[in-house]
Amino acid sequence: MLDKVLPPKKLALKNGKIVCEKRSRTPFIFILLVIAVLVSIEFTNFKFQVLVERWQEFFVIVGQMIPPNWEYFPSLWKPLMDTIKMSLLGSLLGSLAAIPAAYFASTNVVKSKTVITTMRVFLSLLRTMPTLVSALIATFIFGLGTLAGTVAIFLFTLAYVGKLLYEQIENASMDAFEAMESIGMTRYQAFRYAIFPQVLPNYLSTSLFCFEGNVRYAAILGYVGAGGIGLLLNEGLGWRDYASVGMVLFMLAITVFLIETVSEHFRKKLI
Amino acid sequence: MNALEQQLYAAPRNHRYVWTVVMVILLLFAWSLTTVNLNNVEEKGWLIASNILTGIVSPDLELLLNVTSQGVLYLLIETIAIAFLGTIIGSILAIPLAFLSASNVAPKPVAFLTRLLLIFIRTVPALVYGLMFIRVTGPGPFAGVLTIALISIGMLAKLYVDAIEDLDTSIFESMTSIGCTAFEKIRYGIVPQLFAIFLSIMIYRFDMNLREASVLGLVGAGGIGAPLIFAMNAYRWNEVGSILIGLVILILIVELSSNKMRNKLVRG
After folding, report:
1. Å between B215 CA and nearest CA of chain A
2. Which of residues 180-239 of A touch B (CB under 8 A)?
3. Which of B106, B241, B145 is nearest to A133 (CA)?
4. Which of B16, B97, B143, B240 is the most exposed place for a label (fewest CB within 10 A)?
């Protein structure tokens, strides 16, 4: 389409042949980007002047967080464990539930188009919902507390691991599957013994990766009342007790770092 | 023993290792079960769930299709604007940080310190940054832009670094040998190698930022989050339904188009 607006440049070679050189589209994309930036600045009231004048305010809070309130540590322990338990339980159940979900969403093992489409639409609907929003809805249904957070993490893990898993199932080699079917195994059995072993390492690795991310998410879920350390974060920010917030963030950073290191070790081993 | 059996027995046996891991996971599972108590589940949970479902099925069409500054469309555009501007600022700021933390460009101690800084930037939750920036700019979408920019830096820089460390350095040698200046080396040696990858990473991050921007409203940093939580707290499920429908459609469209663009960029 763009070639019509901008006719390609014609070049005559020495031997009389005519070749076309496509015009570069970069200037257009650049102009579009500039327009988009200007519109966004308009919509968001972005004012550089305010930023220059008041940027120190940001560091006022950072300054109050350091040094963190060390005495806060004992009361931090239980919510922190709650956060880890929440994300662990949600990730475990979610990645287990992702196996049947992915099975019914992969075109090479299930033949019914309707089953595949419904499963895929369901998974992508779940995935688009931001975790915090599903946690908010869950607090209305399951009441305030860790159960709501667990449900939100469960749903997110199911959608995320489910999507990656069905992509892997579709990329798996079908040779063994067909051979097993031809000697009289059912589809489930063939899936279990031919495809599942192929995708297992990748599946475990994605689940671990998802768990890492979930610990971070779980930390803020308390903000909407879904339990865990986010409650304390919310409280500290509400009371402007920034030294305690600093302590919470410090503990969180250590926990996330430890979990990431352990999970990275196992993920490297898997692949 | 025939060849088949030999092959079967040749498989590595690590049953003990596997069983230990499984036992540890089961123990962790049991341990994490202790956090769930069903006492808090209220009787009216099912009622609310069915209310939410009816709200989503019968959305407030007036709110959904309204074009004034209260309507869902306006709020969605505001959310996109926050995510877009935040991504642009974040991805520009992340470039110098990425070069500083790449071990083949910067000296070791500098790279290590920048990496630590990046890890710390990544662990602080977005909502906390949001609250801190509100102090700078006052509530509104401006705070959202700054928050998105800051949280993008951590991940963007990490992904940029991977691309920078994969740079093909033999090109520089040949460019030096034919007498290129430093600027020419950067323009024709580095930029073409990195540009497409960086762009693809930016588009990916924009996709993620859109989700982040949609929840930042919870702390008052603009976007569609604030009307969503107000509608929920007031039990106006029709409004919740229309906001959620708008949000889900937007995120799906952006995800599809960003996947397409990235495929084109990476495969050339």
Report:
1. 7
2. 216, 219-220, 223-224, 227, 230, 233, 237
3. B241
4. B16
Number of domains in chain A: 2
Cis peptide before A201 (omega within 30 of 0): no
Interchain CB distance below 8 Å, B248 and A129:
yes
Nearest alpha-carbon partner for B221 in B85, B64, B61, B65:
B85
pLDDT digits (tens, 9 = 90+) for B74-90: 888 888 999 999 999 99
> Can you tell me the distance from the alpha carbon of B24 to that of A23, in angstroms, rounded to the nearest whole number?
61
CA distance B110 to B100: 7
Q: Does A96 touch chain B (CB under 8 A)?
A: no
Verify that A41 and A90 share a domain, yes or no.
Answer: no
Residue A53 is assigned to a structural domain of this protein = no
Contacts 24+ apart (CB under 8 A), A28-34: A28/A2
Please tell me if residue A91 touches chain B, with a CB cutoff of 8 Å.
Answer: no
State ipTM. 0.78
Query: What percentage of chain A has pLDDT greater than the value 90?
Result: 19
B36, B82, B256: which to substitute to probe chain A, counting the most A Cβ within 10 Å?
B36
Same domain, A263 and A181: yes
Which residue of chain B is at minimal alpha-carbon distance from A133? Answer: B215
Domains and CATH numbers, chain B: 3-35 (no CATH), 49-267 (1.10.3720.10)
Owning domain of residue A143 = 69-270
Spatial separation of the C-alpha atoms in residues B117 and B101, rounded to whole Å: 10
Q: Within this chain, do residues A218 and A249 fall inside the same structural domain, yes or no? A: yes
Q: Which residues of B touch A257 (CB under 8 A)?
A: 119, 123
Q: Does residue B188 have a pLDDT over 90?
A: no
| Whether residue A11 has pLDDT greater than 60 | yes
With an 8 Å Cβ cutoff, is B77 touching chain A?
yes
B124: Cα within 13 Å, side-chain hemisphere? 23
